[in-house]
Amino acid sequence: GLEETICTMKLKENIHDPSRSDIYTPEVGRITSLNSLNLPILKWLQLSAERGVLQNNALMVPHWNFNAHSIVYGCKGNAQVQVVDNFGNTVFDGEVSEGQIFVVPQNFAVVKRARGQRFEWISFKTNDRAMISPLAGSTSVLRAMPEEVLANAFQISREDARKIKFNNEQPTLSSGQSSQQMRDDA
Amino acid sequence: QQQNECQIDQLDALEPDNRVEYEAGMVETWDPNHEQFRCAGVAVARHTIQPNGLRLPEYSNAPTLMYIVEGEGMTGTLIPGCPETYQAPQQGQQHGQSSRFQDKHQKIQRFRKGDIIALPAGVANWCYNEGNSPVVTVTLLDVSNSQNQLDMYPRKFNLAGNPEDEFQQQQQQQSRGRRQSQQKSCNNIFCGFDTKILAEVFQVEQSLVKQLQNEKDNRGAIVKVKGDLQVIRPPRRQSERGFESEEESEYERGRRGRDN
Questions:
Q1: Residue-averaged pLDDT of chain A
Q2: Which residues in chain B have their CB less than 8 angstroms from residue A64's CB?
Q3: Distance CA A184, CA B117 (A)
Q4: pLDDT < 50: residue spans in chain B
Q5: Which residue, of A84, B66, B111, B146, has the fewest CB within 10 Å?
Q6: CB interface of B with A, residues 41-70, below 8 Å
């Protein structure tokens, strides 16, 4: 019977609770994902959601959604957001405030940075197992490449390739605080 | 797929419509707007990579099958979340140095004539020709696949360099973004981000970030590597005896026979 399957299917899950966070860095932020692994009905709907909080000018590292569009709604605070298309064009560069919404198309790269104390958002994603591919940090696509490939691709030394790969060890969230290495030599 | 895409009166055998030459190879594309391709919901490209040529890392909006028509080389597929399982030996620790800077990366695979390489949409990949003859590949992009939630046009996202989109010439009339892109000199996705933000994210100097954005790079999508590409990977001989399939072993035995 239906009453044992569909009718009793779990339809509700809370992703606001900080203790449920999947990614958490104190003073930086947290991200909670809800997908068909933790709410099976989402497999039917082919949708998923992500709740995020960034604190103290923190960043969510540039990344792309490789199997979904992402529709982002600002829940609290403000953020600086940049979205980049396949030609390297900045198709969005602006501030997103509470109550506003923006769309990040599949494969377009995006970076979010909290303006001030806090930015909170909810993302709806058009895949029940939406996944991101970060451009920086310990799980990044650049880190997955050999140093020599990076050195030849960007015409940089192997030493610089190592910096690109290993300087940021954080997986998804970055404190956004200037390090001593981050000198502006302009 | 829109209606009436497949009302085709006559089929033709088609040669590539467009060719873009790069420092160490070329990319030829068939017009993705041709009715045959619109009907099938696919786009096709042919890459030629010269010896020591490296096709820079890129990903596309569609799942891809790449067939190796000729040549041999190596390729890296960059799957987010997977560990860097190829690691340099940690010699540094023995000498009292940090092992932090020993290189490690995701798995690298050799390819040879006859191989098919499958890539999901949005998963980045690079290729290197380590043979003495050109590598020729034919790539099919299944733009009508459910993995592609963008439109039906093939889109290439460059992670490095400053290459053109080889499908651009056929599609330049069809999107505002393409017209915009013709006016700018930088095509990889780092170009669209603020330099300061990238410097923060990577925790490096802004001058190094500008190298990632690479505005002055005119080598294109396939670049020449000076010397051999030094990467971490198991020796060919070791793999032939331990881990490869029977068919692979025969291939390797053939190579061994020639060597002996």
A1: 88
A2: 59, 122, 157, 189
A3: 42
A4: 173, 179, 239-252, 254
A5: B146
A6: 54, 56-57, 59-61
Contact call for residues A58 and A175 (beta carbons, < 8 A): yes
Task: Tell me how many degrees the CA angle A71-A72-A77 measures, rounded to the nearest 5.
Answer: 170
Write down the ipTM of this complex.
0.75
Say if A105 is an interface residue toward chain B (CB within 8 Å).
yes
- Tell me which chain B residue has its CA closest to the CA of residue A177: B200
CA angle B63, B68, B73 (to 5 degrees): 105
Residues A184 and A153: beta-carbon distance below 8 Å: no
Model pLDDT, residue B81: 84
Verify whether the Cβ–Cβ distance A182 to B100 is below 8 Å.
Answer: no
The Cα–Cα gap between B211 and B217 comes to 9
- Of B60, B156, B192, nearest to A84 by CB-CB distance is B192
Is there a contact between B134 and B55 (Cβ–Cβ < 8 Å)? no
pLDDT grade for A48, boundaries at 50, 70 and 90: very high
CB atoms within 10 A of CB B145: 16
Q: What is the pLDDT of residues B64-87, one digit of tens each?
A: 999 999 999 999 999 988 889 999
| Chain centre to alpha carbon of residue B115 | 15
Per-residue model confidence (pLDDT) at position B143: 93
Q: What is the pLDDT of residue B203?
A: 93
Note whether B162 and B187 are within 8 A (CB): yes
